[in-house]
Amino acid sequence: MFMSWFYQRMNSRKKNRRNRTFTEAKFSTGCHIYHYYIHGVNGNCKADISPTSDDFRRIDIVVRMNLREVEDDMQTLFINAAKDTFEFRATTPDRGIVEGLLRYHPFLYDKETYPEDPFVYQDCFKYQKSQARGRRDIFQCFWNGRLIPYTAISGFDWCQKKGFKLPEECYSRFSGVLFTDSKFHVSATKLKFMELEKQLKQPGTHFTRICPIQKCPRRGDIQKEFTNWLQNCHKTLDKQVEFIDYKGTVKRPEGQPKKKQQPWAVFSSIKQHGRRYNAGDIVMFQKTPSILCGTVVKFFLHGNHKGDTFATGGDVEIKCEPEGLYEEIIKVLPIAKIDKTATDEKNFRTLGKYTLTLSTVLNDNITTVYGGRELPKYKHEFTIQEGDAESFSVGELSSSLRVGEPFDIPLQMKDCYNHPTKPPPNIKPALQSTWVINHYDLKVTLPGLKDDTQTTKISLHPGNPHSLLVKSKTNPVEVENGNPVSFEIEVHDEAGNITRFPGLEVHCQVWTYADNHEGYRNSSALDLSELVTKPVKEKIVNGEPQILEARFEIPSQKQVAPVTRQLMVMPSKQISRMELFSQGEEELVLKNNEKIKWQAGGVLEKLFYKLYDEAGREVPITAEIASNIKVTWGTDVDQRNLVNGRLPDLQIPTHVDEEHLYQVSYQEKKVSFCFKIVPCPDEPAGLKVTLPQSIVKLGETLSGDISNSCIVAIGVRFPSGSPGSRVICFSYKDYTENVVLEVAAGVPSQLKLVSEPNQVRYKGKKIANSFLFLCDDWGNPSPDENINVEIKPSPVTLTVSLKRWYYALEFKGSLKGKSIPGPSVNLTLLPDPNKPVRLSVDYEKNGKFCAGGKFPGSYFIKITFVFYYREEEIPTRVGEYTVEFSLQTNKKEDHLWSQISVNVVANEPVKLEPDCQQQTPVVFYCTEMANRILVENMTLKITDQFGNLAGQNLNGTVSISIKCPEEERSRILPLFDGKTKTISVKLIEGSALINSLAIMENSPGENGSRYILHFKPEVTNAPTSLNLFELPFHFYNDTENQQKKVELMKKKDELTESVKECDKLFDKIRNEKDLLKSKTSVCDICSLLFLCVGYMLSSVALCLEQKTSELETIEKTPRRIFSIHRNFSGPDILEMVGELAFVADDDIARVISWQLQGDMDCIITTTTEAAQKHYEDTQGNQQVMALDSMFVYQEDRPLPHISNRQELFKPSGNPTFARKHLIYPSLLFSLPVFKNLLGDTILMDDLISATNYRKANRIQCPTILTRTGERVSAKGKFGGSQNRAPPIDRLKNVFGAPLPDNYEELKEQIDVLHRYCAAVEEIEKAEKDHNDHSTKWFSEILQKEKEKDAMTKELEKINKQLGMFSICFIFLIFELI
């Protein structure tokens, strides 16, 4: 509704819009309408200027639009321009309540502050310029916080001007808003109220002012309250008059009340409404008994003022004019009575045409008619023109004056009253400039004028580039080869000033016949710039200097002549060449990259090197230079020899099969010298055999080659035998050589069992020691001790009696990652009759859990049973899952549980599909893009069969083409936009985004035809073939029936979905039927359960009665209980300490209860906050303890006589930890409590055993309690009544006794029997429901099949209609032809 009103408003004012766009106006107007929805009750107030109400109680404001950034809507302008507010409430006779607010916008300094609409020209409302609000209505009206734009109220009687002394303009300086609730009706469009103004202005409506602090109504007359508020606003907020030229402070006793006689500040001038009044000016007054004119003497303002100020009010002292007409010449009148529309009547200084009227008036009044006749009068017309030029002023000069550029000086001639006038004839201006610090004073003189000289300041900038100066100390400039050259550059204007210019660049080009070097430097920001070239690299010939030329120019300033300088490139003093030579028996001078033949195994000694610079001068070798000399042979180089030019001796290799490269380099191969050594053979002197290794294993071939001078023996191997030494003899001509080779046992290949264990064992009993040997293929023991032997049992076989398991223990070795087979021993394992102690889960930890697949086999052990979980389905959605296994044989024992975490990952990628379901597109033979679009903003992703993303590592393209359905004949295919048959889209990490896909304008195709969009993924290294995605669409070229076809297609889609829903219902009915059938198998399962425990189905009721009787007998049997009754409760309060555990043995219950007697009634809470609260609720009389404040060891410590799982001695008295005798109903909360209270307190049989235990330990021992009631403290103290427990009947609080062991078992059996009875009833009910539902299902399926047949027929009808449209279109084309 808001938008319709906004468009009407904008269209009606279309001609008045200025400088604002349509979008800006739209959002600003929207913010105005929903202002209090967006910014809350107080609106968008930037500064809190009044204690406005935060609770308009009957207004429900909800922020639902994000338009807070708009700052120029009208409500924001009104709120932030207001300096004071007036709140009121109106109550109508029918108890409707309207809350209102007036905001005062004062006159400040030289203008009104009443906001103007920034989107509408003000003359749209025909404003009165002297008033702020003009003719606009006062109140805008809001309904439930929303602006109703077409309803505005001009005001009420009590807020209109009615003869009060306030200036009239004060009544146009306030704006207002009215807030209503749903009691006042608005139109359906919410653009106007129905009868709001009529309801508010009826006689019975009562207005009251609201106190801004207490938010309660004030007693009193609303008109009086409003007038007082308006007077105060005018007095304190309006700043209409500027008082200028303070003269002093005086006292005014005449005609003033005593309180206002002083102080009065005196001023010589004032300024109001853009007009200035000075002492000596003649002014006219209005609202006086007669027309009064006078000359201003001075102005008065009450208060302490010491300078110029703004205020409202004040008086003016005048001398009445003409003086002869008045007896009292001096008068004091309010400044407000000055007629601001009157002109200066005596001193005519304003140019223009005037009419002076002299009228005859009677002495007693101002009437110009006497006796019905008009008294004589005279009119004189005259014109005021500008006078001769007496002075001038200099206009504003350009801020960018440059040397050498002409500029204009604007001069304005003025007469004696500063009126613009013509210059005098033949005037010749004279100019004179003077430099003053950082600017010029330009003195302009016009001879002949009264005020003939004016001085103005000008800033002169350097002019345009005129010349280029390149400074250098020498010419030519010398530079060492390899170094850059620097020049000092200055750009001058025509006066020689260094100039700056935007984008000014000086280029330097250095060249020779062979190479060019360029360096660039921007010198526009510096007075003196240094230009540095790139390093000069010239080829030095025979050590002679090279001459180059450097050319400097400014490319952007062609008028500046280029400058050239010569460069003399001197040979570098850096090391540039190295020479090597040998001073052995024969002096040898080496050449770089030379190939030298030398005797194999010999030494190239006395090698020296020398270094030279580019001029051929030898460079003395220093320690620093020597430290940078590197050679490629020898690691231990003597630096002292390098300083003397000596290189280390070079050992020639003994092999002659290849050449070797050697290098001497300086500074990381900056200067280097290379040579190659080719070893030459010497004469033979003997036979030498070299074995690659001294030990070889049986069956292995000797690694490497046996070398005998130039003869090589390979493939040496000992195929069998026993370990030991072997001698190998080599002979060649007259030379013979023997070598000894140690033969060790072969590669370990088997395990041999020396002694077998007993074949029948009990669980928990050790198997007698057995001896295994690691042997090779020939049975030789292997010395290798790093073998790991694994004893692996074969899968267990469960017998009929469920009493024993048969295993085959397989011994399997592993050596360096190689598996070694071993023997197998049959073993029969008898079950442990005790309860289970652990729960283990075996599964493939490194297995891959693919979505929708099957979990690998896993199991957990319960007593003598092995439960297998095989072929369990994996969830079809990817993610982290936790599988928990738990076991509890009875409720007195702890849960055995185990958790495994599995990460379900996507299955194999199989298809390409969109991320959301796509509707069947319909396109047309046309030019409009909207009717040619096939797909928009569709994302295709590679997924597995369950829709999980599975192509994150697949990249490639998606090829899009248009095909005919397989069952139809080939026909003309539409083309894509751009006249292409196929389009490729990038496939990145298994995802492809298609922003828009359309057919071309006026695309070919058969009318009414159905086509298929093929989206085929083309990727490399795909693990499986990927199914393409097909999207059918329809093509039409009948523009007349396009809309009908689209509607039929939509209806066709809806019917297709309805048919699918029917199919889903059929599936649901079939599932319900199968579920009821499955319930019939419950009876068979329950029968099998009771057969297993030895009961017949016919004796279930008798058995249930017997078990229930046994349970009731146990519950009625007296037993020891904790006697304190709880009288507390709460979510974080658990129980008392005495309730958290049971103790079966009476003696143990007695001594532990006595040990914890002071803690038995302590209340345990889960949090410290709950403990503190309960402590305060009981006034500190109740003991409390919080679980989150306890420190408990996570692992159980061993008894003091046990160290490293070994007993230090054999103690007597059966020592155990006392807390082990407690039976916990809730292990989660009880265990940490008693670990904290009892700690490591020990329980033993008697006092003698306890004291001997401490003596034998001789280490730190905790407190010991005995079953006889004695206590030995941790310090060793015992004896006396304080260390002896009283009889159990004298203890105040005692731990309760647990129920018998068979109690929980009985409850479980009773529960099973009850469930069996319920199962029998359930199966009977299931059979009955199955019979009852059969009829219902038959009727429902019959009804749905009829509906489905009807929808199918309608679909066929729609398909025929679509086909008819195509036929009609073809016929129409034929008729047109």
TrEMBL record:
InterPro entries for the chain: Ig_SMCHD1_1st (IPR058611), Ig_SMCHD1_2nd (IPR058612), Ig_SMCHD1_4th (IPR058613), Ig_SMCHD1_5th (IPR058614), Ig_SMCHD1_6th (IPR058615), Ig_SMCHD1_8th (IPR058616), SMC_hinge (IPR010935), SMC_hinge_sf (IPR036277)
Can you cite a GO biological process for this protein?
Answer: double-strand break repair
UniProt keywords (A-Z) are: Chromosome
GO MF entries: ATP binding
SMC hinge domain: which residues? Answer: 1131-1254
Q: What is its main location?
A: nucleus
Pfam families assigned: Ig_SMCHD1_1st, Ig_SMCHD1_2nd, Ig_SMCHD1_4th, Ig_SMCHD1_5th, Ig_SMCHD1_6th, Ig_SMCHD1_8th, SMC_hinge, SMCHD1_S5
Which superkingdom, per the lineage? Answer: Eukaryota
Q: Does the keyword NAD apply?
A: no
Which cellular component, as a GO term, is one annotated location? chromosome
List the subcellular locations: Chromosome
What's the protein called, per UniProt?
Answer: Structural maintenance of chromosomes flexible hinge domain containing 1
Biological source species: Poecilia latipinna (sailfin molly)
Organism ancestry = Eukaryota, Metazoa, Chordata, Craniata, Vertebrata
